[in-house]
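REQUEST ID: PR-0412
SUBMITTED BY: lab tech R.K.
PRIORITY: routine
TASK: structure prediction, single protein chain
INPUT:
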Amino acid sequence: MKAIILAAGEGLRCRPLTLTRSKVMLPVANKPILEHVINSLEENGVKDIILVIGYEKERIMDYFEDGLNFGVNIKYVEQKAQLGTAHAIKQAKELIGPDDTAFLVLNGDNLVEARTITDLLSNCEGDASLLTVKMEETEGYGVVLTEGKKVKQILEKRPGDVSRIVNTGIYVFTPQVFETIEKTPISEYGEYAITDTLQLMIDEGKTVTAVPTDSKWLDAVHAWDLLKANSIVLNAATETVTEGKLEDNVVTKGKVSVGKNTKIRSGTYIVGPVMIGENCDIGPNVVILSSTTIGDNVSIRPFTEIQNSIIMNDCRISSHCCVSNSIIGSNNTLGSYFVAEEKENLEINMNGVIHNAPKLGTIVGDDNNIGCRVLVKAGVTIAVDCQVESGKTVYRHLPRSSVVL
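STATUS: complete
OUTPUT:
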């Protein structure tokens, strides 16, 4: 069976991290979300993959190439305009051959384990099958109304809590779906949605079934959702690999993985689950606490504490810093005594819409230079290519190329 992975979108709600990469390339446990999806497909024997790309497509293609290094065969098609999920699937029509009786569709920005895909492949039937999960809070998701296994309606805007069953956006279709996509009307949002295609199939009398799963499925809607995804993946790791060098008097507890050519210096204390990449230089006397991922080529100087955070590649973190519940993008320099304040139940304004973050420090994009003794207030983000002079407090979001003197 072939799989179409939708990976063309930008991920506006994950800015500033998506100013320089697409959402599917955001790292969880030192791998892009998309790589986790591909690994789960490969474990199910699904090796022919069609990636629908668009925003920052070169970064995806450079990383995955033809898929050989990941045990799969990847072909690419481009969605030149973001016109919805049905439109994205349509771009792959020419790569679905006459011998393909059915194919998978997945979103490249959802974290799924292999068993999640197995649940759908083992129970799909009819003209289309969609994978569902039960959620307590369904706001922002399409809810599914069923009679037995048959789907009767998919509600994007529901009248009250009519159902706790949510559409995950993972499907099995027969090739006949392309005929229905051609008839799918444009939505009120100006796009062609695959949920409208499914509703049209139901209205035409075709059989659309729902397949429930209790296996892992996580939709990283906002940048801070990556912290939860990162914690889940780190906690699920079955083994730890230490390929770097730990000096004397380094204390590790729990699952701690250390990459090649990484040096952990004396007096450093690490509580897992923690994953540290290759070619890092950490310590002495650094504290790294649970649910933290550190990328490749990262240096962390003495007396710095990091917990429940994601530090991406090529960062330089000076001494006496405190980074908690935060995401630091690639190629950042943080001066001594940098502090990311954290708070719970934050209300964050994105383009006039309020979003709730359960617990957050800061989110810093790529290529920033931050001086010594800088405090970033809880929930405040720093975009890309910014410079913050020493001794400053950052009270509000900094747009691209800001200079704080």
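NOTES: Residues 159 and 205 are 24 Å apart (CA to CA).
REVIEWED BY: pending
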